Amino acid sequence: MTQVATKITEEKLLHLIEDWYRLEDQTIGMAEELKKKSDNPFIRVIMDIIKHDSQKHKIMQQFVIDALTREAVHLAPQDLIPIADVLEKHIQAEAKSMGMANACSTVSRNYFVDFIVSALTDDEIKHHNMLKTLDHIKSAVYPYGQIRA
């Protein structure tokens, strides 16, 4: 891809992300509105989850906007090596959380509990995968292998 084509593609991506970022504000507002209109605890917790996820999405989208408009993202060994021991512990904690979530889903026979536990399981898997990706990157940028406690 040429430099011009890359720039056009990045500009298109930037506009899409900015539009999506603005849409998240609407999603947050609608979740708040739906929560106010309901006294049902299940509906209210779903709206809280959606609101908080949308707030998290905005943080992620802002990162993408900054990565496209400011300094390019970079990661060096000195950024990752100092966190190796805590990263490994966090990976283990997330793996344990995934196991606990799986145990809960195996035991529960309540539709509403299962629904929430399923959402929690998805989040725990996502967290674990994000941390494993960081660990993989750390291994790739650190030429002497992984540091293990």
Identify the notable features of this structure and list them briefly.
149 residues; mainly alpha; 2 domains; flat
Q: Order of SSEs, N→C? A: HHHHH
What composes the largest sheet? Answer: none
Number of helices: 5
Structural class: mainly alpha
State the end-to-end CA separation: 44 Å
The global form is: flat
Q: How many domains in all?
A: 2
Helix content: over 70%
How many DSSP-defined strands?
0
Query: What oligomerization state is this entry in?
Result: single chain
Q: Write down the Rg.
A: 20 Å
Spans of at least 5 consecutive residues with low confidence: none
Report strand %.
under 5%
Brief write-up:
By secondary structure, this protein is mainly α. The chain has 5 helices and no strands. Helix 1 packs antiparallel against helix 2 and helix 4 runs antiparallel to helix 5.
Topology of helices and strands:
Layout: H1 3-36, H2 41-69, H3 77-80, H4 84-107, H5 111-141
Helix pairs in contact: 1-2, 4-5
Walkthrough of the structure:
The protein has 149 residues and is mainly alpha-helical. It has two domains: 1-73; 77-149. It contains five helices and no strands. It has helices spanning 3-36, 41-69, 77-80, 84-107, 111-141. The radius of gyration is 20 Å and the shape is flat.
